[in-house]
Amino acid sequence: MSTATYAGVTVELNDEGFFEDPNAWTPEMAEEMAKAEGIDALTPDHWKVLEYMRKEYFEKGTGPTVRVLGKNSGVDVKALYQLFPKGPAKMAARLAGIPKPKGCI
Amino acid sequence: MTKRIVILGGGTGGTLTANRLHRHFKHHRVDSEEVEIVVVDQDNQHLYQPGLLFVPFGLAHDQDIVRPRKKQLQHGIEFEQTGIDHVDIHSDTVYLENGRELPYDVLVIATGARLATEETEGLTGPGWNEKVFTFYDLPGATALEEKLAAFEGGKLVLNVVDMPIKCPVAPLEFCFLADWFFTERGIRDKVEITYATPLDGAFTKPVASAALSDLLVEKGVNLVTEFNTGEVDGEGGKLIGYDGREVEFDLAVVIPLHSGQEYVGRSDGLGDDLNFVPTDQRTLQTKAKENIFAIGDATNVPASKAGSVTHFEGDVLVENIIKFLDHKPLDEGYDGHANCFIETGFGKALLIDFNYDTEPLPGHFPAKVGMPLLKESRLNHMGKLMFQWFYWHALLQGRDIPGIGATMPQHGKEHPTPTPEGASA
């Protein structure tokens, strides 16, 4: 576990950089985290995905896979990879302040 | 008047549920009424799905792993062979493809998962069943047997399109068996085996993932992680990822995206986007309506889609259906227990045992003296082979298998020293 400070607030992160507590997240934090990941500014499409990620997480207990994102977030898979080049499901989950999506087993 | 329980699906979950309920309700009435049980399935072929892994390597054949569904059901259970059009959850009625309308007091969804090959571009296009195969159904596994027997060498790629899939260890087992198979055939040095997975490691759970990664290295299997297959180019011999990465193959074995059954999509209020049925992970009552329960691969519970899960769920499900009909509160008893043998080739296998809260750990099962966990052994391989007998004679009949209970045993497991991630799975 480690801590990081985003938008002036210190939050706890796990070993892979995901939020320990999704309720500690604010939209301002996402803007700052995005810059650190090489995204200059979050566009409306980015936000569409982040909001969908959080909605899914709070409803279902886990973030969606890339395929489900492509089907339901309003942004198709190709565009998702342009928005989140390091892998949409993981990167968007990190920016949305939710745990890494489980590939359920 | 009688009460009616309708069970959709005559596979592992449907059969064991029907047999257990039948045994109970032979001697019990509900509100002084008798209870009748109807099982619906579109065909009469009950496939022992764990056997599919062995078919491509010539170690099992269709006649060994298929039996009539109806014969697995006890006398007194009605078997209706037809497709399902849809369920009307508001009027508690199933509409069947043969025109019959089947009103129910309790409905059990046990129709499993479907291979959604159409969701991956090019998968069933040129090269399908010539150089692109799946072993997740009987025709595919049988076609692959011929192909593997004649394979002279080249790049063999095993690809999982997306999670969740049935038996998440089966693709790894396939790689291990392929290593053994080509070694036996004397051409292992001519075959390059690659495992391309959307996960970020060999497996989802950390301790098991590390152990299985080591095994892949030991057996010379390449691992490509975080690969999300966007397209299969059968003619060009390559898998193309959504991120633009390509994996070349001479022979691709693809595990397609899984979904629930199509009738779920036609049934208003029953399923989710992928036609899986949202289900309480502890009680197995669906979120759709209080008189609808679900078991096995058809649900969305965060456990493996595997026969062992279905078997353990069966205990809680049957108890809860009885409680529901008796107007009693449900038992939140299912702990996510799963238990799988992992065939590793050369007559050996691993065993893993885990639940919602405890990841697969080393040790022994079911207690300190027992089968080795997360470690290769001949005993585990024998266990895997013997299991088929238990499947037909004990599990489906709803009898207990000695030493294997619904709740995961903690005795015999070696917990790692706590880390920040702990045992969270």
Folded structure, characterized:
The complex is a heterodimer of chains A (105) and B (425). Chain A has 105 residues and is mainly alpha-helical. Chain A is built from five helices and two strands; from the N terminus they run E-E-H-H-H-H-H. Chain A has helices at 27-36, 44-60, 66-72, 77-83, 88-95, and strands spanning 2-6, 9-13. In chain A, strands 1-2 form a two-stranded antiparallel sheet. With 425 residues, chain B is α/β, with parallel strands linked by helices. Chain B folds into three domains: 2-113 and 260-325, 3-Layer(bba) Sandwich (FAD/NAD(P)-binding domain); 117-258, FAD/NAD(P)-binding domain; 337-425, no CATH class. Mean pLDDT of chain B is 93; it is low at 419-425. The chains are: A mainly alpha (105), B alpha/beta (425).
The helicity of chain B comes to 10-25%
What is the CATH superfamily label of the largest domain in chain B?
FAD/NAD(P)-binding domain
Q: Major beta sheet of chain A, specifics?
A: 2 strands, antiparallel
Q: Which strand order do you get reading across the main beta sheet of chain B?
A: 5-2-1-9-20
Q: Give me the Rg of chain B, rounded.
A: 22 Å
The end-to-end span of chain A amounts to: 25 Å
Supply the CATH class of chain A: Mainly Alpha
The rough form of chain A would be described as globular
Named at the architecture level, the CATH assignment of chain A is Orthogonal Bundle
Fraction of residues of chain A in helices? 40-55%
Total strands of chain A:
2
Biggest β-sheet description of chain B: 5 strands, parallel
Structural class of chain B: alpha/beta
Radius of gyration of chain A over all CA atoms, rounded = 13 Å
Please provide the ordered H/E string of secondary-structure elements of chain A.
Answer: EEHHHHH
Ranges of chain B where pLDDT stays below 50 over 5 or more residues in a row are: 419-425
Q: What structural class do helix, strand and pairing data of chain A support?
A: mainly alpha
Identify low-pLDDT runs of chain A. none
Strand element count of chain B: 24
